[in-house]
C-alpha cells in the first residue's frame, strides 16, 4: 500500500535482485510459480484476506520446495506481540518478519538470506532430477538386458519385484508375488539348495548366485538364474537382499541338447573303436590317429561354438555400454561442483570402463578383436615393458630377462602382445604367493614340418617361467578354456589365457603350456617371424586448419534407440546439427529429402540393410559423402569397393570427435 511497493522494488534493484509487483492478492497468487525465489508481502494485505488459495499453492509445492515469505509488519513477528502472526506462520510456513519502519540494510540482508535459501532448494531440485534420470536409465538397462529386479526384506520376508522378475516365474505383470509364492514355485529338488545359499549370504555377506528349476502356474518347468547382494544397516545387521533374475530356460535346454548330442557322438565313437580293436594291429595305429582327430574336432567345435556365443554377447554388451558410457560422460560434464554427484558418476564410469575392458577380452577370445598386424621388435617390446612388469608383480617377485639382440621381428599386433605378456607375468606372480623369480626369455625356432596347428617356418618364441605350484595334466588341459580359473572367486575372470590363445590363433601361432605339480609353469607364445623390418614412428602430418572446423550437419543411423539417443546427445554437445535415422532405408530417404549432409555416421550391424550396404547406396547417390562406420566387430565389408573409416564401440565423446575430424580432413 502507498509507496511500500516502490521502496521495496527500488531496494531490490539496487541489490541486483529483479522483482515483480502485485497490486492485489489475486494478481499475486496468479503470478506464483516454481521460479519464484521469495515473496515480500505486507501484513495488512493478509489480515482480512482469504488465504485458502495461498495455502493450497504452498501445500502442493514439490518436495524440494519451501517458498520463503518476508512479512512487513508494524508489530513484530512473535505470537506474544502479534497474535495474527501465528495464523500467518501456520498458513505460509517459511516466514521471516521485518518490523516497520525498517532500515534499508536490514531489508536487503533479509532478502538476500531468503534468496540464498531458495537457491539451495533449486540445487536440491537438480540433484533430485539427476537421481531420477539415473534411476530411469538403470531401469532401461535392466529392461534391455531382460533382467528382473527384486528386493527381499529379511525382517518381514516382504518381497518386492519388477514385472520382468514376475515374468521369470510365470506371473503376469499385475499379479501379486510373495516370498512364499516364490518358495512354492521352486522345484522340490532345488528348494533346500536355494535356502542354503540364502542363509550363506546372510551369514557371510558373500554374493548370492544360484541357478534353479521353477514350476510355473501352468505346470511347465523352467530355469531361473538369480544374483543378489546383501545390505546391512549402520550397526552391521543384515536388513535386505537386492538383486536381479533372468530366465535361462533356453540356454539350459540348449546345453542339455548339446550334452545329448555329445553322448550320442561318444557312443558312436566308442562303438567304432570297439570294432577297430577287433581288427589287425598297421589298423590299431589308424584307430589311435582317428581318435586323436575326433577329439581335436570336438574340442574345436566346442571352442568355436563358445567363441560365437561369446562374440555375440560381447557385441550386445558393447551396445549397452555405449549408451551407459555416453550418457554418464555427458552427465559428468554437466554435474556442476557437487562432490557427491561427481563421485557417484565417476564410480559408474569406472565400472562401465571395466565392463568395456572385459568385452575386449571376450572379443579377443572369440577372435573378433581388431588387430593391427605389422612387424614388431619383440626384444624391444620386452625391454620397454620392464618397469611396468616390475611394478605389476610387487617387491616379493624378481623378474629376470634373457633377451638376445639379434632376433628377427615378428608379425603381430604390438598392443595385443603387450597385453598378453602382462597377463602371463601377472599369472606367474599369482602362482607364487610367497614370492620367487619369473624368467622371461626370447628365442627363435625353426619348424621343418607341420606341428599341430603350426605351419613349417620360423617363429619367435616368448616364454614366461615361474617357480609356482604348477598344474597337473587335467588342469593343464582346461587352462585355456574360457572362464576356467584356479584363482579364488573374484580374483580372476578366467579369460586371460583364453584371450592369449585366441590371439595366437589369429596370428597363425600358438600358446604352449608346460607344467607339472611342484615344478612351476612355462608359457610359450609362438609368433611367426616377419620378413619386414619394424616400422619406425613417423611425425604426424599437420592437419589442415580451418577447412573443416565449425559445426557440421551429420546424419546418424543406428537401429538401437538407446545408442542413437546417447550418440545424438554427444554430437549435439560437440556443436553439430544431427539428423537421426533408425534404419538404412530411413537414412537413404533423409539423404534424398533433408538437404545437404556433411557426414554419414552409421552402425554396421542393422537388420534388412547393414551399414556396409547403406554406405554403398549412399555413395551411389553422393560420391563424395564422407562415411564413418561404427561397430563392435573388427570385420568390415570387403565388397564395398572403397575405403571407409571405422569407429570401434564403445567410444567416448573425445574418440568420436577425433574420428570425425580425421574423416573430414581426408574427405
Main sheet strand line-up: 5-4-8-7-6
Main structural class: alpha/beta
User: Could you say what the CATH topology of the largest domain is called?
Assistant: Heat Shock Protein 90
Number of separate helices: 21
Description:
The structure is a single chain. With 667 residues, the protein is an alpha/beta fold. It has 5 domains: 4-133, Response regulator (Rossmann fold), CATH 3.40.50; 145-247, PAS domain (Beta-Lactamase), CATH 3.30.450.20; 279-365, Helix Hairpins (Orthogonal Bundle); 374-528, Histidine kinase-like ATPase, C-terminal domain (Heat Shock Protein 90); 553-666, Response regulator (Rossmann fold), CATH 3.40.50. Helix content is 47%, strand content 19%. It contains 21 helices and 20 strands. The N and C termini lie far apart (71 Å). Residues 553-664 form the Response regulatory domain. It comes from Shinella lacus. This is histidine kinase.
Keywords:
five-stranded antiparallel β-sheet, five-stranded mixed β-sheet, 667 residues, alpha/beta, elongated, Helix Hairpins, 5 domains, Beta-Lactamase, Rossmann fold
Reconstruct the topology from this structure.
Elements (H helix, E strand, L loop, with lengths): L3 H11 L10 H7 L7 E4 H5 L4 H8 L9 E5 L10 H9 L2 E5 L4 H41 L3 E6 L5 E3 L1 H6 L10 H7 L2 H17 L3 E8 L5 E12 L5 E10 L1 H29 L6 H50 L5 H27 L8 E3 L1 H7 L1 H8 L3 E6 L7 E3 L1 H17 L5 E12 L9 E9 L7 H6 L17 H11 L3 E6 L5 E8 L24 E5 L3 H13 L3 E5 L2 H10 L5 E5 L7 H11 L5 E5 L13 E4 L4 H14 L1
Parallel strand pairs: 1-2, 2-3, 10-12, 16-17, 16-18, 18-19, 19-20
Antiparallel strand pairs: 4-5, 4-8, 6-7, 7-8, 9-11, 12-13, 13-15, 14-15
